[in-house]
């Protein structure tokens, strides 16, 4: 009934405002999406000669189908789209891309259609794709690009981002990576390694060997550098790692543990905690001139700092009131204000890339929650409850949070696991993010194709 | 009407406060825990005969209990007798807290032990501090007793 009404609305819009492009399909991402948009993703067509040439390079039989299935999977896990079963498609991929027969696609209830073509142009991968509004019978977008063939998975992610952006009006988050801590072994002797993977779990790679404990990796704004905590030589310190070169260095020369690192939004500073004589305060270090600044000065534990996207404010957690609560201050450490006042204790605040919200972990009556609040502490909303979960990290468009969850062990102390999970800001679409081993401390990169 | 509503809210708040404080002050004394501080010997190792290697803490606390102070005095006496020994104080937290906060908490606990040893004449040159946060539990259980064993500062010989 609702969808009939929607169709009716769309068609009337077109009748009265034929030039207004907003009359075409739109997906509302501000609410939990109970009616994902039915979308047909026709496999990208590929000529036989190109198909054979790519088969050798990418070790997959049909590159067109592979790229389409990446798009299909991305749109599906976003929770906003319902990719339709390919078996029902009536039109062949090559013809669909030239001139879709909208009646055919309408018949299987597709509202949007994605078509495209892959070809080998001088050993480069050339991809063109189109997004169609089936009901309006119109092309919404057409794009073509050329890249090296080994980038084929990213091509799928970029198409997904473009489609998402065109249909929701907001940037996508598919051409991104996740850095996290891969975990193995018994709970009392966990082996932890830095690992990086594409947002959809592909291309998983370990960045450290597991000889020393590593924790809390976070990307810089360009996603080329990572700051994290390593117990190298039993001296827990904040490190910097260049992902491309593998070069690592200690951040600063502190006579004790440094931890909880993050980059400033311009990537020029690292903000972190330094523990001395039982007291942890927040410091920054400028990566160019190596100048260290002390930002908080309080005999309580001040940690988990995170900058606002404009760099003017810092949120952090402190137990200065007796228990862990969230505070906001100016980036020079002045004007400290407590913002969390609900029941329970609050930690790991992270400022949304859109600037309007702070995500956090909350412990109340033995349960852990991931939630969000406005930057003045108002409008607290809990998204998910569990035995143990913490450390949310935002997708670059500020619509999804990734975090980790641990299971309760049984009476024998067995059955422990740690997994990555994601949830939409709406509180819907909670999913486990598959990793080859157990995982924790996820951090989402920026959009790589920006 | 409005006043009534306010009164009702107030009552609710009072009721919750009562419920919370009742919870907070309830002391459990099983054979192995006092309040929520571990008092058993399951996981304890010994630096020398009669010198336990670790002390335990209440949830979110770094205050030394009477029993902890007694243990640390024994450690101090042993360290004074063995003046060539240097030590690492390893501070730990249970799994019921955020990772970064627990790193700080472990450091605070180990320093509480360090300060106490120093007041009993052990030079800070002989003591280093290392926090593991919640990364190295001794008991992998997910229950109050297991957590109480994991909230600890362990004195480890470094040489």
* Largest interface: chains, residues each: A-B, 46 and 31 residues
The best one-word shape of chain B is globular
Gyration radius of chain A, in Å: 24 Å
Global geometry of chain A: globular
Low confidence ranges of chain A? 1-22
Give the terminus-to-terminus CA distance of chain B: 74 Å
CATH architecture of chain B: 2-Layer Sandwich
CATH architecture of the largest domain in chain A: 6 Propeller
Topology:
The complex is a heterodimer of chains A (about 450) and B (about 160).
Chain A: H1 2-16, E1 37-41, E2 45-46, H2 48-58, H3 63-77, E3 81-83, H4 93-98, H5 102-107, E4 112-121, E5 124-133, E6 138-147, H6 152-168, E7 177-184, E8 191-198, E9 205-206, E10 214-219, E11 225-230, E12 237-242, E13 248-250, E14 258-263, E15 269-276, E16 279-286, E17 292-294, E18 302-307, E19 313-318, E20 325-330, E21 337-338, E22 345-351, E23 357-364, E24 367-374, E25 381-386, E26 388-394, E27 400-406, E28 418-424, E29 431-433, E30 438-444
Parallel strand pairs in A: 1-3, 1-4, 2-4
Antiparallel strand pairs in A: 4-5, 5-6, 7-8, 7-30, 8-9, 10-11, 11-12, 12-13, 14-15, 15-16, 16-17, 18-19, 19-20, 20-21, 22-23, 23-24, 24-25, 26-27, 27-28, 28-29
Helix pairs in contact in A: 3-6
Chain B: H1 2-25, E1 33-34, E2 37-38, E3 46-48, E4 51-52, E5 54-56, H2 66-81, E6 87-92, H3 99-119, E7 127-133, H4 144-150, E8 152-157
Parallel strand pairs in B: 6-7
Antiparallel strand pairs in B: 1-2, 3-4, 5-8, 6-8
Helix pairs in contact in B: 2-3
Would you write up a description of this structure?
The complex is a heterodimer of chains A (450) and B (159). Helices cover 16% and strands 41% of the residues of chain A. In chain A, strand 16 and strand 17 (292-294) form a beta hairpin. Chain A has helices at residues 2-16, 48-58, 63-77, 93-98, 102-107, 152-168, and strands at 37-41, 45-46, 81-83, 112-121, 124-133, 138-147, 177-184, 191-198, 205-206, 214-219, 225-230, 237-242, 248-250, 258-263, 269-276, 279-286, 292-294, 302-307, 313-318, 325-330, 337-338, 345-351, 357-364, 367-374, 381-386, 388-394, 400-406, 418-424, 431-433, 438-444. By secondary structure, chain A is of the alpha+beta class. In chain A, helix 3 (63-77) crosses helix 6. The relative contact order of chain A is 0.10. In chain A, strands 1, 2, 3, 4, 5 and 6 form a 6-stranded mixed β-sheet that branches. In chain A, strands 9-8-7-30 form a 4-stranded antiparallel β-sheet, with no helix packed on it. The longest helix of chain A is centred in the middle third of the chain and has 17 residues, at 152-168. Chain A has 2 domains: 27-168, 3-Layer(aba) Sandwich (Rossmann fold); 177-444, Neuraminidase. With 159 residues, chain B is an alpha+beta fold. Chain B has a single domain (27-157), classed as 2-Layer Sandwich (60s Ribosomal Protein L30, Chain: A), CATH 3.30.1330.60. Chain B has a 4-stranded mixed β-sheet. In chain B, strands 1-2 form a two-stranded antiparallel sheet. Chain B is globular and about 40 Å long. Residues 10-28 of chain B have low confidence and may be disordered. The chains are: A alpha+beta (450), B alpha+beta (159). Chains A and B meet through strand 26 of A and helix 3 and strand 7 of B.
